[in-house]
Structures are given as structure tokens and as C-alpha cells.
Amino acid sequence: MTGTRQPKFPENFKMKIITSAVMSLLVCFGPSFVFAQEDHAEEEASLVFTSEELAAAGITVATVSVESLRETLRIPAEVQTNAYQTARVTPRIQAQVVNRHAQLGDHIERGQSLVTLSSVVMAEAQGELIVADREWQRVSSLGRKAVGESRYIEAEVARQQAFAKVIAYGMQDEQALDLLQPGNATKAVGNFDLLSPIAGTVLMDRFVTGELIEPGRVLFEISDESVLWVEGGLTSNNLANVEIGDPARVSVNGSDWFDGHVVQLDHQLNETTRTQAVRIAVDNLSDSLHPGQFAEAEITIGPGTPQIAVPNSALTLVKGFPVVFKLEDGDEFHPDLVEIGQVIGDWTVINEGIEAGDEIAVEGIFHLKSLLLKSSIGDAH
């Protein structure tokens, strides 16, 4: 395009594809090669494709534009559970495991029964509740005037305290109310269920049926893994550059990336590593990330600077020099030498060689390069 300053090709970059004769057309499955003569002195290689051949080769074309790119910071990190969406289920009194209703890896709904426990302490509290409830029912039916103000209040408070005790010990309101239904007094044997306070996945359940469990021991850890935390450490060189809300992405294998954003910055440096913890929230609806995995986190920082840039996939090396394939005249691809700048995420800044508005191949570059090198070898012979 007029006005674009092309970098000068080094002498050893002539690629052997400049020739004084027109090459024969390739016959089988592929584009033909033609050469447009320039000033009758030397000829420049071009690859000619039909639309059908483009589709078959997986070649995609895009228009070069000015991109507002922000710098990226890469740090090692680790996938963690989201503590704000995690719950640990523990008994509040000594109890024995009667039956489990969930196991490791199960998806649990909020309010779902996890385990049935049995406790002598609970049995006593259940009995006290039934007695207190029966007394309250009799006193309230007689009325405040018939039994007297003091006895009426005493019976009411006794019933409320007995109900609160079994709830504090681990029963749910519905379980306690069911115990008070007529004919259910025989159920006061100390059994009760622990229910899940949240919906999520069982991450830990280290106990066996029949085991005696002490108060406060964690029986289940349940976490909603739809949004996980990824935590890494920032050095003193980049502490000031990262802010809450900065976009980020995370990968555990270097190829598959998951979008997220910075949600927290620790206000205290790690005394051992002298780094400041940064926490990234990542959507995990696909259940591809799991707590404990090591990861690489990429945080986008700083203000965006408008620059001519191309996708990394559009660049290739020929004879050790960076090249893009520019589309001209609607069907001809020409290898153009470019001067590259900074690589920012999936984009590479182009300092010289192409300009905004040029059309270049952004996918299928390996196929174009293979054909180019094949033509070079053929011309050499």
C-alpha cells in the first residue's frame, strides 16, 4: 500500500523464490503459483487461492487495525477454593455416625441431608422438648387467667428454651417440629441429620460409619466451584501496577485459558517470599479447574496504548525473519517482512511493514509457509 515503509530484506532473505522464469502451476490440491514481474528486474513470489481453496486449507483473513493494547503480567499461581462459597459441616455435640448420605465428589443441594448422627445428649434434649411442649400445650389451652401469669410464662419460656437447645445441638426446625407431632414421642432416641448449608460439591468427607465424632470435627467440606480463586504473588516491581478489577486469565496447561479478574490484594507481604498475594476470581462453569492445581496467571495492567498489532497466529519466521502473508488483488498472498515490537497477550505490535487497512492471513499460516518453501525448493532446482 502506498505510504507504507517496507523494511529492507537482508541479502540472505531472497528465499530463492525470485526467479526470471514463471514457475509451473501446482497440479494437485492446492493453489497455483504465479509471479508478478516488477520493473522487469526481479519477480516477487505470490500464492494465488480461490475461495474454495481458502476454506479447504483453513486460511482466514482479517484486516489490520489499530488496537488499544494493555501490558500483561505473568505470575505463577495456585487454584484454590472460593472461601466465600465454601462450608464445613461439623457436629456441635459428641455423636456417633449412624449413616452417611453423601460421599466425595457428589453434587449437593442446599438443605440436603449429609449424615445421620446419634447422641445421648441429643436424646435427653429431645425428651426435654417433648415434655416442655406438652406442658405448654396444656397450659395455653387452659389460658393465662386459669393457670396464672407466672405459670403461663414459665411454661412458654421452658418450651422455647427446650426447642432452642435441640436446634443448637444440630437439629433443624423441621426435624424438631416433626418430633412434636402426636405419636412421634418414640422418635426421641437422639438421632438427627446434618444438612448442607449450601449447594456445591463434596471436597472432603473423612469419617466412617460407626465412628464417634467429637464436637467441632469437620465431617464434610462443600464448595461451590462455579467460581474459584487463583492466588499468586506480586513482587515489589509490579505491586503498584495491579489494581482491583484488572482483567486476568488463568491456565493450568499453558494452552487452555480461563477468563477472570482481580478481586483482592493482600495488604501484608509474605515474610518468607517477600511477595504480596493477589487473588483472581475465575469462572469455572465447565468444571475444568480444581483446587490445588498449579497455574499460570496473566494479569492485564496499565492504560491501553493504540498501536498497530496483529494476532500472534498471523506471524511466522522465514529464514529467521518475521513475516506476514498480505492479501492483494483479492486472491494473491505475498510474504511481507515486518518489524515486530512487544508481544502483549495474544497480540504482537508491528513497528514497520504493514499498516491499518491491510488484509493479512491470521489462520492457516503454516500451510502458506509450507507452500512458499516448497516453491522455493522447486525453483532452486
Features:
Elongation Factor Tu (Ef-tu), domain 3, 20% helix, transport, BSH_CzcB-like, 381 residues, six-stranded antiparallel beta barrel, conserved putative lor/sdh protein from methanococcus maripaludis s2 fold, disordered N terminus, alpha+beta
Give a structural overview.
The protein has helices at residues 51-57, 120-142, 144-147, 149-169, 173-179, 365-380; strands spanning 32-38, 42-48, 60-63, 65-80, 86-89, 95-100, 107-108, 113-118, 191-195, 200-204, 212-213, 220-223, 227-234, 247-251, 258-269, 276-283, 294-311, 316-318, 321-328, 332-337, 339-344, 347-352, 359-363. It has 381 residues and is of the alpha+beta class. It has 3 domains: 11-68 and 305-380, conserved putative lor/sdh protein from methanococcus maripaludis s2 fold; 71-83 and 225-304, Efflux pump adaptor protein, beta barrel domain (Elongation Factor Tu (Ef-tu), domain 3); 120-189. It comes from Elongatibacter sediminis. Keywords: Signal, Transport. Belongs to the membrane fusion protein (MFP) (TC 8.A.1) family. Residues 1-36 form the signal peptide.
Number of helices: 6
Shape: elongated
* Overall average residue pLDDT: 83
Structural class: alpha+beta
Any idea of the CATH class of the largest domain?
A: Mainly Beta
CATH architecture of the largest domain: Beta Barrel
Q: What fraction of residues sit in β-strands? A: 35-45%
Distance between the termini: 33 Å
Main sheet specs: 7 strands, antiparallel
Number of separate strands:
23
Helix content: 10-25%
Number of domains: 3
**Helix-strand pattern, N to C?**
EEHEEEEEEHHHHEEEEEEEEEEEEEEEH
